[in-house]
Amino acid sequence: MNESVEASSSRRLLTGWLVLIALLSVGWITLQTQLTPPAEVPADAPPTEFSAERAFTWVEMLAQAPHPVGTREHHRVRNQLVSELRQMGFDPQIQVAPAVWGFGSFMGGGTMRNVLARLPGQGSGNEAVLLMAHYDTRAMTPGAADDTSGCAVILETLRALRAGGPLERDVIALFTDGEETGLLGARAFAEDHGWMDDVVVALNIEARGNFGPTLAFETSGSSTLMIEALAASVSVPWTSSLAGAVYRMMPNDTDFSIFRDAGVPGVNVAFLDGYRTYHTMLDTPEGLDRRSFQHQGEYILGLARHFGAGAPVAAEGAGQATFFNVWGHRLAIYPVGWALPIFLVALALVVLVFFVLRSSGVLASWRTLFTGSGLALLTVVS
After folding, report:
1. Strands 128-134 and 170-176, how do they pair?
2. What is the rounded distance in angstroms from the CA atom of residue 295 to the CA atom of residue 234?
3. Which residue, 365, 265, 267, is CA-closest to 318?
């Protein structure tokens, strides 16, 4: 009898350990897949692809030194952007707008100079996809990641789009000025430029570090349509509605905020690892991970093609969604109204799994249930 009981207990313990190892293995593989950016695409890739190696030349060219608003280096970077756009066959323009900004008791004023270019589509209307990054930096950083990488992503995206033939919608490239002093260039475009009326979707590129996967951390308009577009057009998407919920509670803004508040649908992307380099002299071209740069480019080129081809940016009944990565690069997307029922089912499954593990002797306390699964369950309801 004792041998039978011991054998049964041993089998339960073995089963428990196998379940735990399987769960940990799945979780580890999923995280490794999600947190590893795609490999850099070489310069000899087909012209319709985004190549980080090709585009990195622009990062090195533009991020040689800090270039805050009004400095000689800022002037050089702006002229370089205009020159590169002309060499690519565009007729760039500079939007000049006065601006006033303040930090506490300090007030300043100056002139913002946005750089713009437009790639015509073949559609009959004036609808346009907006690609946006800022070319100014803080005074203490050359800004290779923040946000020279975004400017280079736009240049390479424009080159790849031209190589692929005309889209249905136009594509507007907006290199904003004065983002670091209060989103001034983005506000000037939204309030005073005639092309703003044509913008139907905005794609903004940012960085808050110098490596790691690119995260689609904010959407505007129908998050259902925006994330479905992401799933359809980006081979390695990484996103979560939880990230958006957390970001909304933070006192941070990007140029995207101007368009979000104006009711323009869109997606805001950034890579976030390597925060110690953010706004420092460490944000150099040498420190920028080209895989993160490649990932950022694949987001923007994929989404630009998707929306540029005429994909809907608004639709009746297309509201807000809960979304997150579930396995590798696959996304779970469902209406917010489904969140509570799915949460309850997920909670029941978690309780079942932990009951099996605890009854087998693998886990000693129910406390593990609440401390180990709480964050994961939050992604289901956010």
Report:
1. parallel
2. 9
3. 265
Q: Tell me how far apart the alpha carbons of residues 324 and 194 are, in angstroms, rounded to a whole number.
A: 37
Judge contact between 234 and 299, C-beta under 8 A: yes
Residue 269 and residue 126 in contact, taking contact as beta carbons nearer than 8 Å: no
- Cβ(285)–Cβ(191) below 8 Å: no
Q: Which two tokens stand for residue 370?
A: 């609440």
Count of helix runs (H) and strand runs (E) in the chain: 11, 9
pTM: 0.84
Tokens of 183: 């989103």
Q: What is the DSSP string of 54-115?
A: HHHHHHHHH-SS---TTSHHHHHHHHHHHHHHHHTT---EEEEEEEEEEETTEEEEEEEEEE
As a whole number of angstroms, the distance between CA 344 and CA 119 comes to 48
Q: Which residues are within 8 A (CB) of 242 and not within 5 positions of it... i.e. 6 or more apart?
A: 324, 378, 379, 382
271: helix, strand or coil: strand
What's the rounded Cα separation, in Å, for the pair 315 and 41?
35
CA 325 distance to own-chain centroid: 14
Per-residue pLDDT of the chain (382 residues; tens, 9 = 90+): 566 655 655 665 555 555 546 545 545 455 545 568 999 999 999 999 999 999 999 999 999 999 999 999 999 999 999 999 999 999 999 999 998 877 667 677 789 999 999 999 999 889 999 999 999 999 999 999 999 999 999 999 999 999 998 999 999 999 999 999 999 999 999 999 999 999 999 999 999 999 999 999 999 999 999 999 999 999 999 999 988 888 888 888 999 999 999 999 999 999 999 999 999 999 999 999 999 999 999 999 999 999 999 999 998 778 899 999 987 788 999 887 766 666 666 677 776 766 666 676 655 554 554 555 554 544 444 5
Q: Which residues pair with 109 in a beta bridge?
A: 100
Residue length of the chain: 382
Q: Percentages helix, strand, coil for the chain, rounded to the nearest 5?
A: 50, 20, 30
User: Which residue reads 């006065």 in tokens?
Assistant: 98
Torsion, Cα 75 76 78 81, to 10 degrees, reads: 170
